[in-house]
């Protein structure tokens, strides 16, 4: 394993600088696609462990949600065509002559995940599902890779190999603005609003900090059947804005700084629009969701930070380098204990616990003791990849979405 420690990391988000952070809410179509792919992968893997003692090979990180066609107005909505949920990817359908109920597992994930994520029990009855399995026989894998004759043909957990050539990166520490973005989305999509206001969970928050001035834009869906007139809608949005403004003002990110906050909600309303969404998500009015377009592993999308662009949802939790290295890089970056940018590189076929390259960039030149500490952190995380896989198999996907910091506690 080659570990390269270098200096020259630029200062990110200085107090007098500019920082832009976005977080897509738990009910956003892209978030739902990520969550659904990951929920399927988790259920499929656990089924394999229970029946065969191993996780069958699978790779469904192209899962897509096609939004419902609907008619929406104040006072109600009608669904003209349902949501289409497509599971695309390579999936082991059977071990020998023992069938794996892939379609049933996918439908079960839809039935449980979508209502829980949107807090709309009726959404599941308006979803049609399909599975497009592209797994065949290729020269780069044994014929039994996706068509195992027996449980022993499944992945050898004692000699796991990277199944992709990929780089994955992460940075630390998180900024105060990032923490505020996650907190605001959880607040807006949580019971603090939804318990007594007809708000949905397809929230998006965009935070732009210029020096000490922070502009916060929130897109907040309202259930159309619960607001009969524009006046009622405007009252809900106004009250939601008041509560979010108070939440932001009480957050430690504000209390520990001299930031001036301005919260705007549903800015398109100024041109006569209204964010009305069946089931509280734009998936109910035609918007589509794709795996990989949602938040990154740290829970946000940052405009000015390095990003590998890997979509981790739906990838095999045992040996997909793009998934495990993205999460391992996140853990390494935070455990180093100083500002840094960490990159892990995998080469297809190499041992998964031995990256072909590890790059850690710090602000100042690291001394010998710091370099040894960094190497210890990297080696420790690589040795613990099996624990990371176990965490992926056992931690509920909705909990992981709401609390990205759980990864650092695994």
TrEMBL record:
Alphabetical keyword list: Transferase
Any one GO MF annotation of this record: methionine adenosyltransferase activity
EC number: 2.5.1.6
InterPro entries: AdoMet_synthase_2_family, AdoMet_synthase_3
Annotated protein name in UniProt: S-adenosylmethionine synthetase
